[in-house]
Structures are given as structure tokens and as C-alpha cells.
Amino acid sequence: MEKEELNIIEHILDGDNRQYAILMDRYGQQVFNLIFQMAGNQEDAEELTQDTFLKAYQNLKRFKGESSFSTWIYRIAYNTTINTMRKKKYTCYVDEQQLTLLSDNQVDALLDSDTEENCENLRKAINQLDTKEKALITMFYEEEKSIKEICEIIAETESNIKVKLHRIRYKLYLLIKGKKDETCKR
Amino acid sequence: MKPAKDNGLKKALMMSKKPILPSNFTFKTMIKLEEELLLEGKKREQQMFFLTIAFFSILTIGSVVWLSLYTDFHFSLPSINKLSLNREDILFIFILIILLTFDYIMRILYQKKHS
Fold first, then answer.
1. Of the candidates A29, A112, A123, which has its C-beta nearest B7's C-beta?
2. How far apart are the C-alpha atoms of B1 and B28, rounded to whole Å?
3. Banded model confidence at residue A36, pLDDT cuts 50, 70, 90
4. Interface pTM, i.e. ipTM
5. Residues in chain A closer than 8 A to B8 (CB atoms)
């Protein structure tokens, strides 16, 4: 697959632009899903997906094949969305002290329970997370990307990602249990 | 951290509404891409035009300076009353026309190759 993709990219760089449609058909929906989770609405997600592919085309010369094309395009999608969503920031702050009071068992039990009611609560809590947090859990839990791959996409260290995932789990717990700080800032 | 746990969280993520990318997305993006490429081409062409102008201006000024310094040639702006062309002027105009024609042909070839 990767060799084939490198071949396609070589053709595009040689001037055969139509080959780019193959890559768009292959990764369009995946990129769109990630952006949709981050942006939260379909129109913005469509526009940002288009921006992502246009940016990727303009920077195709810089793609050296060190990572897969999928990782590379995810990275562009992530950065494009973060930069756009920064202007429309909506964040729920959770009291740091509350996080330290929680035990792993409590959080594990809540996040592992797949009852209808719990899932609905979790879904609501996910919507309250910020853009970066949404991206992280989408990549890790929904798309089942490895920590290493996520590191390449969001350009952070493995330990940082692990800490962030850990904190997001705790935050979700607090959001569900209604212990969140009352200041949800827009 | 194993992805095997947090089943509820996974299910909640899967449950959330997943819109489908419109079927004409690739087509629309390809059109936008072509437009951007065209725009970029025009910009590059404009840059080339200004670079050519700058190059010839520098070349002309340089030639005049060089001729004034190292030959008997003395440059002075002709007055309207006694405007007359000598051999050097004719040669200079001739070379300028040839170079501009050459530049024009190269542009056409470049456009054909990249369109």
C-alpha cells in the first residue's frame, strides 16, 4: 500500500494531478471523521477537510515517506482544525485538585460500563471536551491508532500523550458526575 | 493503557452521529485545486515578467555604465530637437527586440508545457 502511494505521489509531482483524486477518495472520509469530531459540525468539517487536502497538495514535495501518507494527512488535518478552532474556543475547565482525589478504579468502572445510559452521558461529556482532547480520544479509541502514530500526528512525546489520555479519562468522569467547575468558557 | 478497556467510552464514540462526506467532495476539491494551480501559474508568470524587466533594465544600465567607463562612448539623453539614431543605438534597439521576442517565445513554450 505504502509503495503504491509513493508511486501515486511521484506521478502527482510529475504533473499528473488527477492521481490526487485517488488519495482523496481513500482518505477523505477518515480525515472528515476526525475533523467532524473535533469541529462538531458538518459544514465546518467539510470546509476544513477541503483545506486539509489543498494544503497537503501544496506541500506534497515535502512528503518524504518517512511516515505513512495517512499519518501525514492526519497531521495536516489536526493542525488545520486546531488553528481554525482556536478562534472559536469553547473549553470546560475542571478543577485540578478534584483530579487528584479520584482513584483509577472509580474511573475505570465508569468508562468501561457500556450501558445505554452511561454511553449517552459519556457522549455528552465528550462534547464538552476541547478540540485537542476530542482529537486525541477519537484517534485512540475510535480509530485505534497506536500511541506512536498519534505522537507523529500531533507532534508530542509518548509520555505526554499517555498523560493527556489519562487526564481526559478523569475529566470525563468528573464531567459525568457533575463535579465539573462551573466555568465553561466560550 | 490498553484499548481493550474503556468499552463504554468506545461505544459512546461509535454512537455519536457520523455524517458521510458528500459524494462530489473529490470532484469539488479537484476543481478548487485546478483553480489554485491556475492562479499560482499566473502569479509565477507575473513574477517572471517583472524579473525579466528588472534583468533587462539592469543589463541596459550596466551596459551604458560599462561603455561610458571603458570606451569612448558617452551617454547623454537626446533632446527632442536633435533626436537622431547612430549605429550603436540601432544595434541596441535591434538586440532588445530580439531578446524580447525570445522571451515571448519562451513564455508561450512554458505555458504550453504547464497547461
1. A112
2. 41
3. very high
4. 0.75
5. 110-115, 118-119, 122
Query: Distance between CA atoms of B28 and B19, rounded to whole angstroms?
Result: 18
Q: Is some CB atom of chain A closer than 8 A to the CB atom of B1? A: yes
List chain A domain ranges: 2-88, 91-185
Count Cβ atoms below 10 Å from residue A96 Cβ, excluding itself.
Answer: 9
Superfamily of domain A91-185: PhyR, sigma-like (SL) domain (1.20.140.160)
- Region A2-88: CATH code: 1.10.1740.10
* Nearest-neighbour CA in chain B from A74: distance (Å): 16
**CA neighbor of A172 nearest in space, from A139, A144, A130:** A130
pLDDT digits (tens, 9 = 90+) for A8-29: 999 999 888 889 999 999 999 9
Distance between CA atoms of residues B23 and B88, nearest Å: 67
Enter the DSSP assignment of B22.
P
Question: Nearest CB to B25: which of A17, A28, A113?
Answer: A28
Dihedral (C-alpha) A8, A12, A18, A20: value to the nearest 10 degrees?
Answer: 60
By the 8 A CB rule, do A77 and A143 touch?
Answer: no
Cell numbers that stand for A109 in this block: 468502572
The answer to which of A93-102, B14-23, B95-104 has the lowest mean pLDDT is A93-102
Contact: B13, A137; criterion CB under 8 Å: yes
Domain boundaries, chain B: 46-115
Which pLDDT tens digit goes with each residue over B69-102? 777 776 666 665 566 667 778 888 888 998 998 8
